[in-house]
Amino acid sequence: MQHPTLSLGTIDYAILVIYFLFVLGIGWILKRKVKGSSDFFMSGRSIPAWVTGLAFLSANLGAQEVIGMAASGAKYGIMTSHFYWVGAIPAMVFLAIFMMPFYYGSKARSVPEYLKLRFDEKTRGFNAISFAVMTVFSSGISLHALARLLELLLGWDYNFCIFVSASIVLVYIFLGGLTSAIYNEVLQFFMIVLGFAPLVYLALKDVGGWDVLKQKLIPVATSQGFAPGTWVNSWQHVGTPSSNPMGVEWFGMVMGLGFVLSFGYWCTDFLVVQRAMVANSMSAARRTPLIAAFPKMLFPILVILPGMIAIAMHQASGGHLLPMGADGSPDYNMTIPVLLARYFPAGLLGLGFTALMASFMSGMAGNVTAFNTVWTYDIYQTLRRSSGKAELPDSHYLAMGRFATVAGIILSIGAAYLARQFNNIMDMLQLVFGFVNAPLFATFLLGMFWKRTTGHGAFWGLLGGTLGAALFHGFALSQGAHPGIKGGWITPEFMFHSEMAQNFWMAIVAWSSCFVLTFIISLATKRNKTDAELTGLVYSLTERPKAEIEAWYKRPLVLGIIVLAATLILNILFW
Amino acid sequence: MNFDLRLPIGLMFSLFGAILVVYGFLSDKAQYARSLGYNVNLDWGLFLLGFGALMLVLALKSRKDS
């Protein structure tokens, strides 16, 4: 089968245009509310919890989520849900209950700024710079993926797609700042849910329902040499890496994905944490990740299930649903476009297509707002202050924020073209980001829960963890890969079943080396902050948030327990 | 204080719902073969209309209260 092409009619374009008018309109209306830099970067800390919660989730809905998770659903089956039930929910609950009090209570304006308050300037600098570079490239990758998809599906011109999507994101962030990004993320959340729900319904109905789907997934598994239930059991086949398509065993899964990577992302990545930091109260900030966790828990239905249905139908039709990729296996990334073209008539197609575009743009906007904040507060303002220049009025920082938004968008466009030209550069960069990010959670864990952790310990521990990751990469390789960018460039000493398993173990190594190094160096160096300075930043020196006199459904602990219990039940149901 | 986000959400989805409902009535029924015979524009349009209206009602109600 050829690549699917979508032909949009007048009504579909009408829906697309109306959506973008609303997106830009929100930016326009919010422009009046932006009076100072704290409005632009932190929404004046005035956003209610349900809005920050849905934005928290939506900011994470980058290019990967809809297209990529459906692809993984087809490629790996229900095991993909581990990215949600193991790799997201527990970390989101931990962030809400244990970490949010310090982020929000410290009045830090960004995650790097928390590192400065807790440790020192060099730790902040390391985090701020690596994060700023990373956001620009992630935003560029989102942009590139969107433009390439539109080029493929609709035959639109690549340059035109880049220009239009980047301009829309630029305009609404430039006008309304973070509030505008957050409001639009919520709009995008509803678009994605309401745009894809009918697709899942129709596809599931067509395949014959869940029980028939389970039957039809048996040959998918057996034809690849796995046990019959591999595509519909999330835990039964993770005993050894060779018995499941991910090539991962349970320990690497739980420790690598569930602990290191997941907590490292959800609890320390400013892109998502920023949404919670601007909530209108401590209680709202703590509820933010929990409100996000409920829909996150159910997202597999929306994004993984369609992939499972598509691969079942692909197999049953003798390989005539998904287009073939260059390497002779199905092009899994085409899952959602194929289903859209197959089931949606004109009208609904416009809605589904707009939802798809929205998911890419929310990923991009989230990165841009995180970038302009970190640039302005953590890099620009810090450099000015440390060089002893006179403090400038607030309006200067507001202007700088708008300038950084323009610069961030231009850099993203550059990154998008770079991604188009040199695929390897992007692989390389993502690899390096992996090295930098994997150890970060060890620094936060020690910093927040052990007052003895010192600035030197944190900085050198982070650096050591990063180097540990790079070194491990030099010794590790996955089956079938050639030594080089995929690993093993020193000598392929450790062989893994899959690249994913290799990544999970790299994260475990990075985290452990950072943890041990930070611990030892902290003991060997003098504390650089007194107890008084650390109040509000470290667990043992901070008063617990008072027993809140709130309805039970607003209490973080209660919500956290409910969402964890529900996740546990889901894991058992689809064991 | 920022404006109530439920207002644009409600407006937009009511509008989408209305467009799909009208289109569902007017469009050629043959194209619904692909959606398993359901007139999904009509059905989902009604749902969106309901969702949008609910958002609007909630937004207007809280405006009245405050």
Can you tell me about this structure?
The complex is a heterodimer of chains A (575) and B (66). A two-stranded parallel sheet of chain A has the order 1-2. Chain A is 71% helix and 1% strand. Chain A folds into two domains: 10-421 and 543-573, Sodium/glucose cotransporter (Up-down Bundle), CATH 1.20.1730; 424-542, no CATH class. Chain A has helices at 10-31, 37-42, 49-59, 63-76, 82-85, 89-105, 111-118, 121-154, 158-207, 210-222, 250-268, 270-277, 282-316, 335-343, 348-386, 394-421, 423-437, 440-449, 455-475, 499-524, 531-534, 556-573, and strands at residues 476-478, 494-496. The model of chain A has no long low-confidence stretch (mean pLDDT 91). Chain A is mostly helical. Chain A is globular. Chain B is mainly α and 66 residues long. Chain B is built from two helices and no strands. Chain B has helices at residues 6-26, 40-65. The longest helix of chain B is centred in the C-terminal third of the chain and has 26 residues, at 40-65. Chain B is rod-shaped, with a radius of gyration of 15 Å. The model of chain B has no long low-confidence stretch (mean pLDDT 92). Classes of the chains: A mainly alpha (575), B mainly alpha (66).
Helix share bin of chain B: over 70%
Q: Find the structural class of chain A using helix and strand composition.
A: mainly alpha
Integer count of domains of chain A: 2
Please give the alpha-carbon distance between the first and last residues of chain A. 34 Å
